[in-house]
Amino acid sequence: AVDGNANTYWESANSAFPQWLQVDLGSATAVRRIVLVLPPATAWATRSQTLSVQGSTDGTSFGQLLGASTCTFDPSTGNTATLTLPAGTTTRHLRLLFTANTGWPAGQVAEFRVYGA
User: Largest alpha-carbon pair distance within the chain?
Assistant: First the structure.
């Protein structure tokens, strides 16, 4: 999910929500936006995934940065979804917590892109 290749992807265990995917930014960083990407192939039908975003400075204790959001991925428009975090968000570890997917019984992400303030 962080290899720069939208054709490869992470997928959680099937039918076992909630599931999570986490990235370590290396140091506490101001974060404003997350862009999630699924593979661009039209073989991927439009789907919505429900997820929330958690953050941590130590990788152990996580707090909620963004409540449950529904992200729609449509291959005709690039299969991307953008999440905007509250202004002033600073964290080192970002965790996506998946609770539903209308297109497959698992969380799915090809690219997990993080942008600063």
Answer: 39
pTM equals 0.93
**Backbone phi, then psi, for 11, in 5-degree steps?**
-140, 135
Distance between CA atoms of residues 55 and 64, nearest Å: 6
Q: Residue 98: enclosing H or E segment and its boundaries? A: strand 90-101
Residues in the chain, total:
117
The per-residue pLDDT for range 52-99, each reduced to its tens digit, is 999 999 999 999 999 999 999 999 999 999 999 999 999 999 999 999
Rounded Cα gap, residues 108 and 86, in angstroms: 24
The highest-level CATH class for domain 10-115 is mainly beta
Q: Is 39 helix (H, G, I), strand (E, B) or coil?
A: coil
Amino acid sitting at position 23: V
